[in-house]
Each structure stands twice: as structure tokens, then as C-alpha cells.
Amino acid sequence: MALGSWLTPDPCGIYLPAADAWIDPSKPVARAIITHGHADHARGGHGAVWATPGTLAIMAARYGPQHGRAVDYGESVTLGPIEVGFVPAGHVLGSAQLVLDHAGERIVVSGDYKRRPDPTCRPFQPVPCDVFITEATFGLPVFRHPETTDEIDKLLAALRTEPERCVLVGAYALGKAQRVIAELRGMGFDDPIYLHGALQALCDLYVAHGVALGELRPATGVAKKELEGRIILCPPGALNDRWSRRLPDPITAMASGWMRVRQRARQRNVELPLILSDHADWDELTRTIEELSPREVWVTHGREDALVHWCRLRQIRARALDLSGFEDEDD
Asked: Keyword Ion transport: yes or no (predicted)?
């Protein structure tokens, strides 16, 4: 019997027939196991949901109350004959890897993950396994993320250099915005940080879960003079819209791993690209595979071919999974 034959990859997600449950399904299903709260992994409308308390809170904020069971890190649940454990993935608040034990095999579904320290979520926990199902969002050797402190230094230097302007940082509402704020606080930046209204609810949710973000103020309705020399966060879509035109000559920044690609920065008219990712880069992806030493690697939602090739060169069996609906919402 083939390794992992009790698990069925499907364009809509990963199906566990013996448990009649789906992992991160892209459509409403009766029983869903969710790795984290980004919309390309967590959809509304499921009959029952198993996820961490943080992920359930995020889903409730986005979709309304969930018919779910909260599973803490280090705990497991039994679904049919399959034991499902939840361990930290280091991606965003509540993000988890799923540790599946059945038929004498262990399969780890990484969800999205990163290996860099992040003050807003629990760090990635390596779990040796027979099959490792890994993301490959930045699965090309060109993607090697710089040190986080260097990128935050760039942001603070821009603020000091042109104090009559503001720095407007485009950051996704879940995970990235809160991480930028927490990294700034960790570098000793104690000034108020101003927010576009679309970021407030999830920042409040992070604070409710014990993540310290310091003083946050709404940017809307504030006099232009007050915003000079300030850091303002907004969704990426607001960087160049009517909302941003009322700000004091903003230095337009964007926090994303995709800022490594200059064309993407130019397309968004980004003056200050900040390469700050919530996904593992190429070196971290390959180091993780070496650390876990799985018998097989299954690669999904990203640049699968390069990582599959890297594995095969090292005599590690590998294949790409044909999953749909993953849109890198969080980076």
C-alpha cells in the first residue's frame, strides 16, 4: 500500500475518507479541520470545524460564530480512526500544523508556516514524520528573506529622514499588520501608530489574545498636521486610493515577501519596499525538510516544481499536489 494512501488530495482541499473530514477545504463541507484563519484556508459555512482557539476567533470575526471545537496546541482529537494533533506553525495567530496519525504512519500538514521569530504568534514546532505536506509560496532559490530588523530599520530611517511626511505601510489585515506593529514596538518605537479602519477589528482581536500592540489610533478624521512624522497602516488596496490622498505626502511602503520582486513594487507604486514575509523562504523550506527527514514530501500552493526537484536530487520522494483556491492572501 502506498504511503499516505488514506489521505486524498483534491482540488478543493485534502480529504480524509476514514474520518469523512476535509483539511482547509475551499468549499463548505460537513466536517472541516482548519490550519489557520486566512481566507484562502478558512472559509465559512462548514457544518463543524476543528481548529485552535485563535483560528476559531478569527473565523468568527470574519464569518460569524462557528460550530466548532477548539483544540489547543499539544492536544489532539480522534476523528474516526485518525488521530489529529495541532502544533504551532509560526504563521499567524492560531496557525497550526496538523499531525495525522493512522495505520502506523504519521503525516504532517504544514498549512502556511515560517521559521522566523514573530512576537505575535507561537513559533514553528518541528515534528518528524513519514510524509511532510509543505507549502511552497516562496519555493524558488531567489527568495531569501532579509533580517526582519533590517527591514524595520528601513522603515524607521525613512520616518526620521523626512519628518514632515508620514509613512503609509500597506499590510494585510490578518497577521502582517499586527506583526509590523509588534516588530516596531520590539525595536523601541513607542509612538502612537495610526490605522485604517479596516485593520482595527483584527488588531483588537490580537490584543484580546494577549498580543501587546501599544497605542493604536484611527487615522480617519485626524488633521493632516497630526499625521506628519507618523506611521500609518492600511490594507494594500488603500495605498493609492482616495483615502490615502488626504495624508501628508505619504512615503508609500508595502510589507510583503513579494517586495523582493521589483516589478511588484513598481506595479503598486511602492516607494519603500519592506521584505517582510509570514512564509518560509527557500532556505527555510529546504532546511525544514532536512530537519524533519520525511520519507516523502508533498508540495502545495506555490512554486512546487523547484522544491520537488530539490527533493529528488537528494533522493527524497516528492510530488506536487493539485490544490486550488490558494491566493497568498496573507503576504
From this structure: no
Q: Name the one residue in this structure whose C-alpha cell is 460550530.
A: 67
pTM: 0.95
- Give the number of other Cβ atoms within 10 Å of residue 79's Cβ: 18
- Residues 68-124: pLDDT tens digits? 899 999 999 999 999 999 999 999 999 999 999 999 999 999 999 999 999 999 999
Provide DSSP, 3-18. TTTT-EEETTEEEETT
Q: Quote the CA–CA distance of 131 and 18 in Å, as a whole number.
A: 18
> What would the pLDDT profile of 202-230 be if each residue is shown by its tens digit?
999 999 999 999 999 999 999 999 999 99
Q: How far apart are CA 14 and CA 7, in angstroms?
A: 7
For CA atoms 172, 176, 182, 183, the dihedral sign is: negative
CA distances from 267 to 166, 249, 258, 275, 326 (A): 21, 19, 12, 16, 21
Tell me the three cell numbers of residue 14.
485534502
- Hey, how many other C-beta atoms are within 10 angstroms of the C-beta on 220? 12
In order of their start, the domains of the chain are 8-142+279-320 (3.60.15.10), 148-274 (3.40.50.12650)
Task: Map grid coordinates 478558512 to a residue.
Answer: 42
Measured in whole angstroms, how far is the alpha carbon of residue 319 from the centre of its chain?
23
**What residues contact residue 214 under an 8 Å CB cut-off, 6+ apart?**
181, 185, 190, 192, 193
> In a 10 Å sphere around its CB, with 0-12 CB exposed, 13-18 middle and 19+ buried, how is residue 17 labelled?
exposed
How far is residue 209's CA from residue 120's CA, in Å, rounded to a whole number?
Answer: 10
What the block records as the C-alpha cell of 306 is 523547484
Report how far apart, in Å, the C-alpha atoms of 184 and of each of 156, 201, 318 are.
8, 20, 39
d(CA 172, CA 55): 16
Quick one: cell of 312? Answer: 529528488
